[in-house]
Specification:
By secondary structure, the protein is mainly alpha-helical. The chain contains 24 helices and no strands. Helix 6 (about 115-145) packs across helix 20 and helix 6 packs across helix 21 (about 410-435).
Length: about 500
């Protein structure tokens, strides 16, 4: 027997590639969400600048401010519905790349705007782009990820969206509103260039019979040890077929679709979009001692911190505990805002005449330092913190996890469409309700919605932490949660 000590007793395994390329592909895609977050809150610093500007053609009344804030959501709904077709026909990555077209044109129109209709058009086009990315990016990131990092990477779309909003608030402190639109072009163009070198979703490629392309994509993402994952994905694809109206009556399809649509609807019903869009005007209305533009930037920083916290906890604490915590924090802070704005300090107006101040007209005399005026700032920070650590990122992640492969492209577009139609209605109505009734009314409504969200989480939302997409599909097929646990213990 040869006792050569140089011969290893245990054969060495082939070195596995780390997650570097996977992270690069995910980063390239979620740059679209950075642009989305940037465009979403664009009116917040721009409305005050327009009202203080010298161009009478661009001064906005209450009705025009409502449309300037809300038409973005209408475009996002259209983009989400368009992505229903693009996701399953051309693929996830090409859909994301196509979103660069309306985004680039929209930012150019905003930068060159000479009339109110150009402001509307620019917002609508950037909304279309954002709707396309919102429907495509979570699905793409989920399908290229493996279970160990899918929770963390699944929160990246929300994280980059928050970073984009923070960038907008920060740049709004130093840049005129036209240059803000020019700055919005940067992430769009960088995303387009990087995605040219990234692979498409292996699951999508397998559904199109492009096995060799899928193998190359998996090898690029995972390294040489990809065959087992390829076979699992291929088996999952083969067990599913195209979805017709008859198939939608099966629990395997309609349950995850209803859960996803319900979560996206309730996510928007918390009022997060009108709060973010009108953040500076809200601070003007509550007359916080600090300047509203600095308050908005501070809230943006808190939002970024909370999403980073959620990303680190997503695969440790689980989805449902974070949703419960998120709903409770939003409920408490919404209730606080309701009570504060219903019975504000005597020097705080709560009538329609203060709308001019909402729109950005400077206060005649700066308010004296009053600690109680920090209540709306702290409450808003808690609202944003609660949303961004739960109902913000987890809703996006669960949509990409639970939707069945056969209906994933169409259903994700439907979710985005429902979400942004809801956001459009809320953003359009928000300012009119404030003028007619008071700022407390929408916050009271959002407070009630937070209670509904907590109940919905307990009754309808499954826990998907640590489970592969195939295991989640098996859960909805069988309707028994223990089948997931059993499959994990077998494969571990």
């Amino acid at each position: 027997m040869d006792n050569d000590e140089s011969t290893p007793l245990i054969p060495r395994q082939k070195p596995q590639r780390g997650n570097g390329r996977l992270y690069l592909a995910a980063f390239s895609a979620v740059l679209g969400n950075l642009s989305f977050g940037f465009a979403l809150v664009y009116p917040s610093p721009v409305i005050p600048q327009l009202q203080r500007g010298d161009d009478p053609r661009l001064k906005l009344d209450t009705h025009q401010i409502s449309w300037f804030g809300s038409i973005f959501s209408l475009g996002a709904a259209a983009g989400g519905l368009g992505a229903m077709l693009l996701n399953d026909r051309v693929g996830r990555k090409p859909s994301i790349m196509l979103s660069a077209v309306p985004a680039s044109v929209g930012y150019l129109v905003l930068a060159a705007a000479q009339a109110v209709w150009m402001l509307y058009l620019g917002r609508f086009l950037t909304g279309i782009s954002s709707g396309m990315t919102a429907a495509s990016i979570p699905v793409y990131v989920s399908e290229i990820s493996h279970p160990k990092v899918r929770g963390t990477l699944g929160s990246c779309p929300q994280l980059m969206g928050v970073f984009g909003s923070l960038a907008l608030y920060a740049l709004g402190l130093v840049l005129p509103w036209r240059w803000l639109a020019v700055a919005g072009e940067v992430p769009v163009l960088v995303m387009l260039v990087l995605l040219c070198f990234m692979p498409d979703s292996p699951r999508f490629l397998i559904t199109r019979g492009r096995r060799e392309d899928a193998c190359r994509a998996l090898e690029w993402l995972r390294g040489p040890e990809y065959s087992g994952e390829f076979l699992r994905i291929e088996h999952s694809v083969k067990t599913q077929s195209g979805v017709g109206w008859a198939e939608l009556g099966q629990p395997f399809y309609y349950k995850p679709i209803l859960i996803s649509v319900g979560m996206r609807f309730l996510q928007q019903m918390t009022g997060i979009t009108p709060i973010l869009v009108y953040l500076e005007p809200i601070f003007h209305q509550t007359q916080i001692t600090l300047e509203p533009k600095y308050d908005a930037a501070l809230v943006g920083a808190v939002r970024l911190l909370s999403v980073m916290t959620a990303a680190s906890l997503m695969d440790k604490a689980g989805r449902k505990p974070l949703l419960y915590t998120s709903g409770f924090l939003m409920f408490v802070s919404m209730l606080t805002m309701t009570m504060y704005t219903r019975t504000p300090p005597t020097h705080h107006g709560n009538n329609s005449s203060s709308l001019l101040q909402w729109a950005g007209a400077p206060t005649q005399t700066p308010p004296t330092l009053d600690p109680i005026t920090l209540i709306p700032l702290i409450s808003t920070m808690v609202i944003i913190f609660g949303y961004a650590m739960g109902w913000g990122p987890i809703t996006w992640l669960l949509m990409s996890e639970v939707l069945p492969l056969g209906a994933r492209g169409i259903a994700s577009g439907l979710c985005v469409g429902v979400s942004w139609l809801t956001a459009f209605v809320l953003t359009q109505v928000f300012m009119h309700v404030v003028v007619a009734i008071g700022l407390f009314a929408p916050f009271l409504f959002f407070c009630v919605v937070c209670v509904v969200n907590i109940i919905f989480t307990g009754v309808c939302v499954p826990e998907t932490k640590g489970r592969s997409l195939e295991e989640i599909e098996n859960y909805f097929k069988t309707g028994r949660s223990f089948t997931i646990t059993d499959s994990i213990s077998i494969t571990s």
